[in-house]
Amino acid sequence: MSRVLIIGAGGVSSVVVKKCAMLPQYFSEIYLASRTVSKCEKLQQEAGKDRVKEVFAVDADNVPELVALINKVKPALVINVALPYQDLTIMDACLETGVHYLDTANYEPKEVAKFEYSWQWAYQDKFKQAGLMALLGSGFDPGVTNVFTAYAAKHYFDEIHYLDIVDCNGGDHGQAFATNFNPEINIREITQRGRFWENGEWKETDPISVREDLDYHGIGKRASYLLFHEELESLVKHFPTLKRARFWMTFGDAYLTHLRVLEGIGMTSIEPVEFQGQQIVPLEFLKAVLPDPGSLAEGYTGQTCIGTYITGVKDGQEKTIFIWNNCEHAICHEEVGAQAVSYTTGVPAMIGASLMLDGNWMQPGVWNMEQFDPDPFMERLNQYGLPWQVIECDSPFSK
Amino acid sequence: MSRVLIIGAGGVSSVVVKKCAMLPQYFSEIYLASRTVSKCEKLQQEAGKDRVKEVFAVDADNVPELVALINKVKPALVINVALPYQDLTIMDACLETGVHYLDTANYEPKEVAKFEYSWQWAYQDKFKQAGLMALLGSGFDPGVTNVFTAYAAKHYFDEIHYLDIVDCNGGDHGQAFATNFNPEINIREITQRGRFWENGEWKETDPISVREDLDYHGIGKRASYLLFHEELESLVKHFPTLKRARFWMTFGDAYLTHLRVLEGIGMTSIEPVEFQGQQIVPLEFLKAVLPDPGSLAEGYTGQTCIGTYITGVKDGQEKTIFIWNNCEHAICHEEVGAQAVSYTTGVPAMIGASLMLDGNWMQPGVWNMEQFDPDPFMERLNQYGLPWQVIECDSPFSK
Questions:
Q1: Which whole number is the average pLDDT over B42-50?
Q2: How confident is the model at residue A1 (pLDDT cuts 50, 70, 90)?
Q3: Residues A223-276: pLDDT tens digits?
Q4: How far is A175 from chain B, CA to nearest CA, in Å?
Q5: Neighbour tally for B222: CB within 10 Å
Q6: Are strands B211-216 and B201-205 parallel, antiparallel or unpaired?
Q7: Burial class of A335 by CB neighbour count within 10 A (0 to 12, 13 to 18, 19+)
Q8: Chain B residues in contact with A285 (beta carbon < 8 A)
Q9: What is the C-alpha separation between A348 and B125, in angstroms, rounded?
Q10: Residue A396: is the preceding peptide bond cis (ω within 30°)?
Q11: What is the CA radius of gyration of chain A?
Q12: Does pLDDT of A41 surpass 90?
């Protein structure tokens, strides 16, 4: 039995639903639920009613409602592509109903931007004792970047020392300003202070203050800025030989100008302001004004390039490799009506789910992606739309 | 009897209240009302309870409520420094109760940015028949700039041909972005298409697309942009010899970047967006996030320079004059706790009111400022805080 319940009906969900629908060998039946049932119905229409059996409205903040839904559907696995604020309520509901769990982004409390795994790692014993598995962060970054690191450590090095994850969206959506995934989460991530791991401790930087101009395969040179990104926390824990681990993302000048203006006037704040007698969070209102990331797919040109530079030692020799994927916005749109940022997150969610359901990665407890054998995951990336490449190269970074 | 009722309790109102309070010879008793009574109480406290007799809460959109308030207070004159959306309801209430009316900005319907006098000019017969007077636009621009033009026409020219009103705020409030008066009205004014009068017709320009670098007395050279401003409409009507009439305002690059970003993403739009089940106007929410213009006064350095270049003919000779006022933010703050943009609007409102109440300008009907003898107004500008200067000069503009 490989019935899945997918919770969430945004841009990433649309990719997960459609990719799962294409693969009945892993996913015999698909059920879909989100706050707005009309979005689920649209996805059901697009993926086919024979594959998406039934859709439901659910408030994913509400555990009893989730429990009732899960008990009704009786899936083997819940794929959570709702908001990161809702990870814990969905995990609680999975525990209560005896169902496995997978997500693509770590739990975030709504009031503070944290990006840390502490809350979800605290579920380790509960999931183990229940004989249930929770797979955390099965998107691209986190997700594929963790698997790339595990793959490099397994096949290319005796010890890995330097890790630089690089994320470039070389696409053009033609909008004045838009975020490629949930604007609320995206802006929280970018406006926080930068952080990286070096010599056994976390070091902080001002937001968007450390820049490297990096050359991206298929795209060219792009200004890349040091950010904290959640996979750094688990990678540093699981690869204790790492001397340094960093994450870089590209932003154009126009994007940064928009961000600075919006931040400077307080529009990216998560502190509520008084408006016509109500408390409204500016960042949430901003999200309502900005384009829906799902709407960017049509006419989106160019491609993404996301990968990891890893420097380490093999047989006493230091070397560097780069493992990466290029993903074209237009090809994603043609295949599943999505842009590449949704696609690169949704496909790994489907692959992680397939590896849980077919037993390859099934193990009770709460796990990050790098804790499993990377080989079957790497194979399915090539099979299901995210082919990767690896080269030995000089590191573009100084030590 | 020279009892006045002031409606509105924002930055401009605070100047009007305090200046009226200083001049019992014109204003024997002051009453104050606004939507938020606590703002009125604060102003009453600051101006003195012996001068501001009583304060009231009133919804200025509601004619019966206004009528009841006016009947209770029985003022000779209502000074309207509420929102421009409320001009017509307050005029209606004045007509119903037999009370004179003054405002500082033309009526604006909420749904469209128009900046035109048609709605208020349509009250001409009603006010005349009722033996009541309505004085429109008694601020600085409109207001003083109209009087400057009338003064030039009266004393310096046989015929005026070219009019350029220039408005420079050379001050620094130390905020990332703030508007100096109601952000909603300010941004509506700036983001509309430019418009000017030339050879008998209105000509349009893209917003903020026509620039001149002008030298402002006491400030220096500043980039100045062609805007439509409401006094152009009445000045062109009342001075039919004008071959061209334009309005220019200075904006710094940072201000324009902020404006472009906010406009580009739709935050300055007056079209409501759906947010958590409600319809919210982005521009109104933006106003809630931006600093209250009244809060800018403390620590605001520098000065404003607003004036009119007028070119015309006297005794067969062409010449140009510049009439202007410089106003220091810090001096305004010291005198009445306001910044210069509020001060330069509030003082002319008080002067216009004083000229109505002492009979100098009293005449039934609906009038713009340039339709009266400018001399007593010009005299009171010098007496009450807005001294002006006039010079003959070369025009900085080409024909």
A1: 96
A2: low
A3: 999 999 999 999 999 999 999 999 999 998 888 889 889 988 999 888 999 998
A4: 9
A5: 20
A6: unpaired
A7: middle
A8: 275, 280, 282, 285
A9: 74
A10: no
A11: 20
A12: yes
Place of tokens 């899936």: A75
The residues of B whose Cβ lies within 8 A of any Cβ of A are 176-177, 257-258, 261-262, 264-267, 273-276, 280, 282, 284-286, 288-290
Closest by Cα among B55, B54, B147, B130 to B91: B130
Partner-chain residue, chosen from A257, A276, A282, that has the shortest CB–CB distance to B257: A257
What's CA A136's distance to the chain center, in Å?
Answer: 9
- In this prediction, residue B113 carries a pLDDT of 67
What gap in Å lies between CA B381 and CA B133, rounded to an integer? Answer: 22
Mean pLDDT of B154-173: 96
- Number of Cβ within 10 Å of residue A129's Cβ equals 11
The CA distances from residue B175 to A265, B113, B147, B291, B294, in Å, are: 9, 27, 33, 8, 13
- A304 - beta bridge partners? A169, A327
Half-sphere exposure of A51 (CA within 13 A, CB side): 19
* pTM (2 d.p.): 0.74
Q: What angle do CA A16, A42, A98 make, to 5 degrees?
A: 50
Q: Is the ipTM of this complex over 0.85?
A: no
Can you name the residues that pair with A232 across neighbouring β-strands? none
DSSP three-state, residue B185: helix
- Closest listed residue to residue A2, CA positions, set A399, A373, A354, A270: A354
Identify the CATH homologous superfamily for domain A144-336: Dihydrodipicolinate Reductase; domain 2 (3.30.360.10)
Residue keyed to tokens 């994320």: A167
Average the pLDDT over each of A83-97, A290-304, B335-349 and give the range with the smallest value.
A290-304
Single-letter amino acid code for the residue at A219: I
CA distance B261 to chain A (A): 6
Q: Which of A154, A95, A89 is nearest to A321 (CA)?
A: A154
Of A83, A78, A85, A86, the residue nearest A127 (C-alpha): A78
Q: Do A289 and B274 lie within an 8 Å CB cutoff?
A: no
